[in-house]
Amino acid sequence: MAIAVQKIYLVPIGQVEPEVLSTLCPPLEERFGYPCEVAPGIELPPGAYHPRRGQYHAPAFLERLLTLALPDAVRVLGITGVDLYVPELNFVFGQAQFPGRVAVISLCRLRPQFYGLEPDQALLQERALKEAVHELGHTFGLSHCPQPGCVMHFSNSLLDTDRKGSDFCPTCRWELDKRRGLGAEM
User: Fold this and answer.
1) Which positions are catalytic?
2) Residue range 117-124: average pLDDT?
3) Cα–Cα distances in Å, from 95 out to 4, 38, 53?
4) Whether residue 142 has pLDDT greater than 80
5) Helix (H) / strand (E) containing 141
6) Residue 36 to residue 57: CA distance in whole angstroms
7) pLDDT(15) > 60
8) How, if at all, do strands 55-57 and 49-50 pair?
9) Which residue has the higher pLDDT, 186 or 65?
10) In Å, what is the CA distance from 8 to each residue of 36, 54, 120, 122?
11) Longest dimension (CA), the chain
12) 3-state class of 98 per DSSP?
């Protein structure tokens, strides 16, 4: 009996641009060392919308992702176009189980048009990659990094996201490899 290869699954939640999904898999495969595949989309979690805030409660997305039957998933990353929040913050670009199996990112505030600017697909895809790598890093147990260029650096604003890179600093790379059992040496 063949053992299934573990994969990172991207799960569109609600309406998500197919271009964003198709461009995320190759760099995620490169950074995490697992095949990446886009799973069928799902609806927005019922009851997650907060009418007074006009946003969706991010933990409800994680709960919904945990119910998906993806037995060969090493990680599951939900991607949505709606604005997410957690009670302690005005908004979040994403949220993850720390450590765990699931994470979610929102494209809403990553889009230039959210700020009244012209659409820029390349910029959206770059920002989405940074947030995807960041949240998946949390699922592997990586904390926020003090290095401003590291993808694991905390983004308090979109300026922080734009300043940081889309890859791990050497310390975070070493920690990720160690957690994946790759015997990283520094």
Assistant:
1) 135
2) 97
3) 27, 19, 18
4) yes
5) none
6) 26
7) yes
8) antiparallel
9) 65
10) 5, 30, 26, 23
11) 55
12) coil
